[in-house]
Amino acid sequence: MRVLTQEIVLPNTTVKLYIRREDLIHPFVSGNKFRKLKYNLLEAKQQNHRTLLTFGGAYSNHIAAVAFAGKENGFKTIGVIRGDELSSKISQNPTLKFCQDNGMEFVFVSREQYRLKSTEDFLCNLKNDFDDFYLIPEGGTNDFAVKGCEEILSNEDERFDYICCAIGTGGTISGIINSSTSNHKVLGFPSLKGDFIKKDIRKFAKKENWDIISDYHFGGYGKVSDDLIEFINDFYKKYSIPLDPIYTGKMFFGVIDLITKNYFPEDSKILLIHTGGIQGVQGMNLKLSNKNLQTINFND
């Protein structure tokens, strides 16, 4: 598989910026979700499972990807959804409606219950309800997901000095770290507050040529600001590349801000990994519209 790498010309800098368009891999299972599911689906088939079960929130890219990929590969899919109040609002939620249309069955649980999703009792109850299933963690991160994400970089990418990636559960950047070379510095931009993600990355990453830039989470997961929305809209107007407000938008904002602050040496070559996630924009726009705030606009 050959994925488009697109150069972005920035004014007033000698830094070279390139974007790996993982978002273009698949219309519904885009970017890192395609990579994370690739070997999980193969493993599920090898184990003769017929059902995939996973977890996510109201506008989860992962939930949407599992629903579509499961249907395409002949699996029944079950989504354990955070927020029991959503059970009566499926038709109002573009992500959940998409999942339902692709055959996903939902289990809505309270936020308190959702925090227990990894406990033995919680999983035993699910097995009692649904018999046997192949479990995919929230966000999709496990050994098979990391293996898939190790395929994002190729030998041609040795020319880059920095590889930048948004971070959710840490699987994508772990795969990138493992396939990076000694010439690369891998920088991760978390969408959540706190440094706990480093511990999660170290479970999978086999090298030490990486660091976390934690200054661009905009208040935490799912949080946005007018500045971020304006940046995403302006970036699309200039380059016709859509960004999502949860992951890639924050990472791109951070990288370009760091360039203006001379964080990167002159003539550095930076590769930004566009991990997709655009399906979540519709849901974010609903939330912004309800608050009479500026929305994301990808109209030319």
Overall 3D shape: globular
- Compute the average pLDDT: 95
N-to-C SSE string, H for helix and E for strand: EEHEHEHEHHEHEHEHEHHEH
The number of helical elements comes to 11
Order of strands in the sheet with the most strands?
Answer: 1-2-10-7-8-9
Give the C-alpha Rg. 19 Å
Quote the distance from N terminus to C terminus.
Answer: 29 Å
Indicate the percent of residues in helices: 25-40%
Instruction: Characterize the main sheet.
Output: 6 strands, mixed
Uncertain stretches: none
Taken as a percent bin, the fraction of beta residues is: 15-25%
| Strand elements, count | 10
Structural category: alpha/beta
Offer a few descriptive terms:
alpha/beta; six-stranded mixed sheet; four-stranded parallel sheet; globular
Set out the fold topology.
Elements: E1 5-8, E2 16-21, H1 32-46, E3 51-56, H2 61-72, E4 76-82, H3 94-101, E5 105-109, H4 111-114, H5 120-130, E6 134-135, H6 143-149, E7 162-167, H7 171-179, E8 185-190, H8 197-202, E9 210-212, H9 226-239, H10 248-260, E10 269-274, H11 281-290
Parallel strand pairs: 2-10, 3-4, 3-6, 4-5, 7-8, 7-10, 8-9
Antiparallel strand pairs: 1-2
Describe this protein's structure.
The chain is of the alpha/beta class and 300 residues long. It is built from 11 helices and 10 strands. It has helices at residues 32-46, 61-72, 94-101, 111-114, 120-130, 143-149, 171-179, 197-202, 226-239, 248-260, 281-290, and strands at 5-8, 16-21, 51-56, 76-82, 105-109, 134-135, 162-167, 185-190, 210-212, 269-274. The strands form 2 sheets. It has a 6-stranded mixed sheet. Strand 7, helix 7 (171-179) and strand 8 (185-190) form a beta-alpha-beta unit. The radius of gyration is 19 Å and the shape is globular. It comes from Flavobacterium cheonanense. Belongs to the ACC deaminase/D-cysteine desulfhydrase family. Keywords: Pyridoxal phosphate.
